[in-house]
Amino acid sequence: MFTLIFISLLAVVSSIPLNSENVISSIRDADYILPGTVIPSFYDVSLILDPRNNETFSGNVSITLQPLVATNEIVLQANQMRLQKIQLFANANQTLDIFSRYTLATDDTHFLKVYSNGELNVNQSYILRIEYTAELSTDMFGVYLSSYNDQSGNRVNLIASQLQPTYSRRVFPCFDEPRYKAEFRTTIYAPPQFTVVRTNMPERTDLSKPQILGYNKYEFQDTPLMSTYLIAYIVSNFDYITNIGNMTFSKPLRIYARPGYRNSSEFALEFGEKNMVAFERYIELPYDLPKMDKVAIPDFSAGAMENWGLVLYREVALLVRDGVTTTSALQNVGRIICHENMHMWFGNEVSPLNWTYTWLNEGFANFFENYGTEMVRPHWRMMDQYVLLIQGVLQDDAVLSVNPMTHPVYTPSQIMGTFNAVAYQKSGSVIRMLQHFLTPEIFRRGLVLYIRNNVRQAVSPSNLYESLQQVVNETNTSLPDSVANIMERWTTQGGFPVLMVRKQAPTANSLSISQQRFLTDTSLSSSNEWHVPINWVLSTNPNFSDTSPQAWVRPSSPALAVDIPGLSNASWFIINKQQTGYYRVNYEDENWAALADVLARSHNVIHHLNRAQILDDVFNLARNGRTHYRHALEVSRYLINETDYIPWGAVNAAFSYLDIVLSSTPVYELFQRHILRLSEPLFDQLGFEPKQNEEFVTPYQRNIILNFNCRFGNERCLNKSREILMQFRENPSQRIHPDLKTTIYCSALREGDADTFNFLWEQFRASQESSEQTILLNSLGCTSNDTLRSFYMNQVISPNSEVREQDRHTILVSVINSSPAGMEAALDFVIENFAAIKPRVSGLSGTRNILTAFARRLTSRNHAAKIETFISRYQSIFSAAEEAGVRSINENIAASIIWSSNNYNAVNGWLRNQYGNSANMITSSLLILVSIFIAFYNH
After folding, report:
1. Per-residue model confidence (pLDDT) at position 821
2. From the annotation, which residues make up the binding site for Zn(2+)?
3. How far separated are the first and last CA of the chain, in Å rounded?
4. For 355-402, what is each residue's pLDDT tens digit?
5. Which fold has domain 497-600?
6. By C-alpha distance, which of 678, 655, 679, 650 is closest to 668?
7. Which of 593, 575, 597 is nearest to 584 (CA)?
8. Which of 177, 273, 306, 340 is catalytic?
9. Which residues are known binding-site members?
10. Is 883 a catalytic residue?
11. pTM over 0.90
């Protein structure tokens, strides 16, 4: 980065030698914010975009400005460009150039300061004109080259863009913060052989710009008021399909993809139309732009980007091909389309004042990607699956160092780091809780008002709360405090609470409920408290349907005593119906035992989402010592009768953690036997053959069951996997069902066979299908062959890597998740090569995904020592997101070290009591001593 900026600055000095300066300063975070003394209202941008040029592009911009105070200084942003000419005019006199000089910062404020000869007047508008040459990006941010091989094997280039969050300044000098909305007029000059040239708006008919020899000119209509980060460009030779002629959605919708992929675009067209219609009905505000394009890009840093009118996607996030796309990938396509569609309102119509409030965009898009998909595909059970997403983010949010939803950010690195699980999954989970404690209709009406009141504006959370509060007041909805006060703690504090629930007395009709912040590492503490909505179900009336709150646990208050008629007659009770509240619940021993008992006898009495909640809560509470592991393991016994996917999805993470911490202990074989016993009925029922008309989520459940059985040595599972793979290798036309590929490939690769690895690697090299490549990349990391594993990891940093930059982090994540040996190898590789890895896994999720994978699997003192080495080597180059990832790793390792000393004996004792055989043991006491010694030695 520094080198590019330095080169740019040298070029700037040579381009405009008169009165130009370069400024290097020591600045505070708040100094990254534009002063706001001058604001833009209109940009006229012209770009020469040529995919044949792999280094630069040329442009010019005219910005109409209004001073808000009398000043002679205009402050905006520019980065990685050579400024060749600057002019400044009063709008009323465009013949008199009043430009004096400029400065361009060498720090990462990227401030471009333009000075006038005299004072700019408040009641006058001005036009700033800048001609420049900019760098084509090499990291998929800004304007950059992508490419693909055509059907003849020839490389074909195209130009694409990604400007969120701070990369518009790489494309044209601008006021690159969300609050500075303006109208944009765009002209693109492109070589004649690139015939598909698109931006946010359709082409205009009243042409005014000059021609440039050797280029075709495309002039586009003016946009509505919008933020700079939502601008987008495509110069390509893509094909498209369209809804024109058969329109469900009222505006023209086109799906663009590389030639030969028209059929793969059909799902996106059909689903996208229906979803937009559903959202227009829900929000009660029509999509306002005259068209919408969705484009599948071979190289794209994010999953997708909601640019208004021109939404860009990775190919795997938009295209669906029969026989190739997995059920999971199909769902992901629908979910991401839905996510980007909702951004047309939450983000595009109404934007955050700044990236401190990223959750106002991404939290709502995350919630509605599930809620909105369920509107169109109810049989996908997206809102049931959302509970699994909540349980996943509870893991990430259970560290003291986690940032809150509203998280002040200033520098580009800090801003990039805010696009994390908190902004997306946690915020979506809190929004889901908000929907339930307000009730779905009041929530919807509040959002309708919020969007309507703030169209084309930039807002803070207070604007949201005001609209919701207005509907609460109109409907006389009872809340313990204002919406703003309730939400304030959820959004400005990190983490979440665990409720401690106990009966006042064995025969009492009241519960005592208190709260405390839940932290994985119990050696840490926090005084954070929240307004917590609660409801309950008794065994005497197991009705889980009404999820509105029946009481609230308030912050800074003593334990809540809540009277519940009939409680003394109930054999069990449950708090938090359908896990709509974003918190965990802990009970006394008697209620945990009663829940284990009813699940064993008649699990369907309890709602499937609450079965999932019980499993996730009890294993995590046991993991950090808040309840005894016997409760978790006793609850798990009922799974032998569980046929629903959601509870199995919930317990999968808990079993995976135990798999890690027990893998090097003497009790590991008994743990494996426990899982094989619980999963045996479903293994027999589901098998390897997908059935006609089976439930949409069944493939996910099958994969959990097959993965456990093949990993833990079920010979029937292993033999069937070998048989299917052998048939495919002997006859590649006999394709493996997409949903089974990862399990079958991993099962074979764990045996260390080089021929299998090489065969699958060649499959990857030969494939042009992004979905197929994703499956193979996730599978190849399963190899147990040290040489091949090393070869595979080196594809991340090799200058001749055949893996696209956007996908390279997948290599390391797949190795980390493959096995304990794979994790160790990946950790050593990252420690040795992080400086080379960092620039080669570019994107919003590259190094962060690698560090998150480590955070969930590193457990020992040896790991802690290695992470200290990692920090000492690379701290100087960590981004804000990477620093947060390392802090999370350290907290989780500390918790796992405590786990071994506090919980191993309990798990060991329970498993031996269930499955132990004294005939083949020396003595149980001796084995326990050996187990303790080995566990201590390993940690």
Report:
1. 92
2. 339, 343, 362
3. 40
4. 999 999 999 999 999 999 999 999 999 999 999 999 999 999 999 999
5. Immunoglobulin-like (2.60.40)
6. 655
7. 575
8. 340
9. 339, 343, 362
10. no
11. yes
